[in-house]
């Protein structure tokens, strides 16, 4: 897959992911705003309910008190009586209750000197109330009201009838201080009940303000924060608007609003995280597949170079043997046959490495272990590479200081481990190979260090040097032969022996491989 296609796929996937997250954020924000509006509407409705209920209660109280308002020493000039009959049917007791409220409108002519005015007399209208209650059985037929009476359903008094009371009782009520007109307990009880009906069961603070000034009616922790306080007028005046306002605020309204949509928010977050994880996983797999493709291509190129030289050598040897001048020279024929054999062994070793890694991946490699002396394995491994080192005029110095050296290991495989590390040290030494091998005991473990003074590795290569097929990228230069399987094999064998292997390296300053294995007594 080309870089251009990969870039396009990443771009499209990224834009889709950003779009999905943006839509989720917009939807959540809209939900929060809608919930705030719903909360505001419910609170406003509750406040108007409380305000109206308190005013209605006060009105009823003053209606019953009107009958006691009589001017002393005044004579009645004329009177007009109008009877309001409020009817309530009780289905449980099978009775009808009639509340009769007689509104007496009396006109008085008072002497002007009493008010220090120019006219002889002043007409004054006075209203007061007389009321009675009668209970009738629904079986009785004596429920008789005169044609001048007006029948009213309870709590549905007409505007005309209310006018008879309203002016007088409001004028009297306004003369009272606010704390005598309503109590804190009443406001709290009404507001709590109404809010609970609409499923708002959180703490609130309330107050009544008069012309933006605090009154005695307020809860202990109330603060008039205009941004978060709801208000409605209460106790409307006769001649003007109400100077009083009922205010309420909710210290925990944010938590309440969030709690109503927290389930939706959590689900959105969970699904968004799943999408992000899926996107990240797809992106990771895409990049991984691209790297694997590059590694396999590099592996094929390296394997081609690994087999190309032996095949060419074998072909040249065979052509030489076929030469009539050489075929009769027994010494040269044997020499060329040995070359063919060595090159064939070399190719066989490469194939074995590939098969060995494949078996390790499938856990099919049979690795039996037995107690061995690690120093003996090191000496044996050195003999495999000694001639190559000497041919390049280098050296391998040993510093075998460990006193306890018995480990549980597979002799063949662990010898290959050390050979592979030494072989790498030789390959990546541009000049003469200079290698030092150290051993020491640390606790119940034995430490092997193989240090070279070769070309070293970059930090990126150090992190990936034990990956299968990995080789540090050097362009199309194959001055160092290999296929990236040796150190992957080393890591798998060391892990199988319950050991650890690490590498420290610096570019142009060499590398140090450290193997730690547990000792056995």
From TrEMBL:
One of its GO terms (molecular function) is kinase activity. Residues 302-521 form the Histidine kinase domain. Pfam families: HATPase_c (PF02518), HisKA (PF00512). It is an enzyme of class 2 (transferase). The chain crosses the membrane at residues 256-284. It catalyses: ATP + protein L-histidine = ADP + protein N-phospho-L-histidine. The keyword S-adenosyl-L-methionine does not apply. The keyword Chaperone does not apply. PROSITE patterns: HIS_KIN. Its EC number is 2.7.13.3. SMART domains: HATPase_c, HisKA. It comes from the Bacteria. Keywords: Kinase, Membrane, Phosphoprotein, Transferase, Transmembrane, Transmembrane helix. PANTHER family: HYBRID SIGNAL TRANSDUCTION HISTIDINE KINASE C (PTHR43547:SF2), TWO-COMPONENT HISTIDINE KINASE (PTHR43547). This is histidine kinase.
